[in-house]
Amino acid sequence: MHGLRWVAVTRLLAQVLTWANTFFVIRLIAPEDFGLAALAGVFANFLSMLNELGFGVTLVKWQTRDEDTLRHVFGALLVVGTVFTLVLILLAPILGVLVHEPKIVPLIRFISIQFLTMSFAVIPQARLSMDMRFKQLGVVDISASLVGAATMLILAIGGAGAWSLVVGTVGVTISRAVVLNLFCYSIRAPRFSFEKLRHLAAFSGLVLLERTLWYWYMQIDSLVVGRSLGAAELGIYAVGRQVTNIPLERAMGIINSVALPAFSLVQADLDRVRKGYLRVLRLGAGYAFPVFWGLAVVAEQLVRLVLGTKWLASVVVIQLLCASMPLRMLNSFTGAAVTAIGRQDVNIKSLLLAIAVIPGCVLVGSHWGVVGVAAAWAIGFPIVYLFNAWLIGGALRLTVLEMFAATWPPAVAAAAMSLSTLGLSMVLQGSASPAVQLSMEVPLGILVYTLTLAALSRSAAEEMWDLVRNLSSRSI
Fold first, then answer.
1. Which of 367, 331, 325, 376 lies closest to 349 in space, CA to CA?
2. Which of 10, 48, 237, 414 is deepest in the core (most CB within 10 A)?
């Protein structure tokens, strides 16, 4: 909980800055520019995910600290970072042809700079996590966010378009590596021998397989929209997805940065892992259902106020994606718990089903444009979640009823909140500015949700209140 306080506070500050800057930049650039940056990022982000070879998770899982192993890990990271940089530079024209968009070629080549830089961040990140030094990790997040936000904003004001987003992303990567090594200097004489890494390779391989499957099933919608509908439509869809993903990614960044080290420390005690998972599930549901369903209700006013009328086409995308987003967040909690107990197969099996279900839904939905693609998630993901709940139930010896009991009170309370807020929105429609509507709808939603949750489950309401109180405690 002490570590969670530091991560929550520092990441909240970092993300408030990032959100404000991102929304301002979106107002400055055209949908096509945003789509180009998103399309270029699809390929670069995949390689950046593989760039650490799964060692970030593996070092924490096995609490690896010996110098000889770390030298060989560092050597492997440098080799892979160099290879990925050269490969992306050479393949950029082919990727441009693949998605029918030659404008992304120079963007992809520039992004490749980050791969070598990321090689210097993996070991210090893992060492700080193992030592539970969340204060320093929080400072890293704030520092990188400041550099990225400043770079992006200056370039966007100067009319750089898609380049402002790409250069800002690279700036975050470089500054993160620098600050991590200031806190935990981890640059050492590299060595490379597969034999020395064999004991880590099996687990790292499973991590890489899981991440590869996860990434492409999460990015299939962007590829389909970009290739079939063009950069401008991808820009609309990507903005809607980014607005929807902000509460998910930020919350998961806070929780998972603490959850994996914590679960790893008690990995031999399945009962403690199971109880911890149920608590995370309850707290996650208490956050996810009201935040995402509430966002769906106020999406139009929010887009008008923050992004501008040129992005109104993204409102329906936001609303449809928010329908299943609470389940997507709860599903993501599986990772840390099963990774800690060595059951990576649970994540892989769940992802295999997701890859079978979601892309098919997306391909069918693309016939109805970005709205159909967004609807594909709302239709297909509940199937994936139910299957994953069954898998993790077997791994942690939980019943589906236990998991349902942890999530239904927040879901019902969020539904009541959404209906009341929607009613007020319909009454105010056209008679008040977006800012005035939001200032009335948000407090009403919070009040209705809090009262309904307390009426349905006093213990759930008290647990949420305890979390808020602990995170805001001055005893950091």
1. 331
2. 237
